[in-house]
Amino acid sequence: MAETKPIKKALVSVFHKEGLDEILSNLHAQGVQFISTGGTQQFIESLGYPCEKVEDLTGYPSILGGRVKTLHPKVFGGILSRREMAQDSEQCAQYEIPAIDLVIVDLYPFEDTVASGASAEDIIEKIDIGGISLIRAAAKNFNDVVIVASKSQYSPLLEILKQSGAETTLEQRKWFAKEAFKVSSGYDSHIFNWFDGEESSALRCAFDSFRPLRYGENPHQQARFFGDFDKMFEQLHGKEISYNNLLDIDAAVSLANEFTETTFVIVKHNNACGVATRDTLLQAWKDALAGDPVSAFGGVFACNRPVDKATAEEINKLFFEVIIAPAYDADALEVLECKKNRIILVQKSYDLPKQQFRSAFNGVLVQDRDLHTETPEDLQTVTDKAPTKAQIDDLLFANIIVKHNKSNAIVLAKNRQLCASGVGQTSRVDALKQAVDKAVSFGFDLNGAVMASDAFFPFPDCVEIADKAGVRAVIHPGGSINDKLSIEYCNANGVAMVTTGYRHFKH
């Protein structure tokens, strides 16, 4: 088999014509003949190049409202014929089927049509038949045919044409075939997912874009991020984002997005170590930092208000990896950019998928995102003493934080400030003790504080420890067969308790 094959005839049928004119110019200059349909054929001729109509080749017009244009043996025979197989060549000669060496095609915009909110009828009409068939046929016969299945592949083709003329190597054709099957598999995944709706009868995911990462969680692990990071964030400054940075950014932004009032969040290893809601961003930063100034070193910061110069100057006093905000004042940015490796991100408006994925064994775990955030209406007072309005504010504040920390998790808060968290413990009692010890070590007065737990209390030991530390109100999901034991302790000691009915485990 010859490695290098010439391009003598090209079938071109595309919607995206930007950048196509230079390719056509190079092909025409090297004697390549064109076959096309409809608007693409008119576009080619408008450039002054002759172009054979597919209808003239097949002897059939476009029929069924354009549903059938290229589905014909004279088209697919020319693509699928194996040039070095005598029987194929004889049959092509017998039926006057010309060899097609290059196929440039793209697909109906199915995903964009779904996203636009179009009707089911319009969406179905955007399920491409001819284009997807051309892609698969040309990719299958990559030994003889070049397939360009997306405008993203225009540039590689043009580079080949400029360097080598109208001929390609087997390695190049195989690369284009691989890219073509990436396009077709992703396209079919989007179609299946639309038909499947919320049934989740099978898992089909397609991510075309990715960014290579320096390494994974550790230097000996390779890693990539599949997704469109630039759709969610704009990086204004700093080094390449790492695997661990991405996890912390996700944790920080997910938590910060829960708050509507001015809030600053500090995250370390996916857990919040500082959170405060205040009237000004500067004060929110100072009080968030007070929650754990030790862990904040080297952390990831997120806030839900533009960063001003005064806040930037305070933040700049501490070493940190990443900061995320909706915007930065120009003079604030000048302050923050003094460290060349510091990653500065602007968060854009975006919608996240409703499901989460995680590998396990030889498969994937899929679950709905935990999108429930408790409101005052969700709270059921189960003790004789009801929480005050200020305590309810603190309870809801603490409950948001505990929802985003690793289980077992306990959060102690006061005046909408995180006093301390106990996270990732195998015992809820240990998580609480960790939180109390940290709060005391950083000088917090826990008298009048509140406690949030990501799951129920199976025994009254936690509320007893919290009460003796000064906690006066507790929020947890409830649901233990021993709930009454914790309630009885609270009633006997003047502690208010509310249940939500929603557990927030996070592993």
Structure description:
With 507 residues, this protein is an alpha/beta fold. The protein has a 6-stranded mixed β-sheet, with helices on both faces. Strands 18-23-22-21-19-20 form a 6-stranded mixed β-sheet, with helices on both faces. The chain is elongated, with a radius of gyration of 31 Å. The mean pLDDT is 94.
Give the tally of β-strands.
Answer: 23
Shape, per Cα inertia axes: elongated
Q: Helix count?
A: 19
| Rounded mean pLDDT score | 94
Helix content: 25-40%
Low-confidence stretches: none
Strand order of the largest sheet: 10-15-14-13-11-12
Helix/strand-derived category reads alpha/beta
What's the Cα radius of gyration? 31 Å
Strand content: 15-25%
Distance separating the two termini: 54 Å
Major β-sheet, in short? 6 strands, mixed
Fold blueprint:
Layout: E1 5-6, E2 9-13, H1 20-29, E3 33-36, H2 38-46, E4 52-53, H3 54-58, H4 73-80, H5 86-94, E5 102-105, H6 110-115, H7 120-125, H8 130-140, E6 146-148, H9 154-164, E7 167-168, H10 170-196, E8 210-212, E9 224-226, H11 229-232, E10 233-237, H12 243-256, E11 263-268, E12 271-277, H13 281-290, E13 299-303, H14 309-315, E14 320-325, H15 330-336, E15 343-347, E16 355-360, E17 363-368, E18 380-381, H16 389-404, E19 410-413, E20 418-422, H17 428-441, E21 450-453, H18 461-469, E22 473-476, H19 483-493, E23 496-499
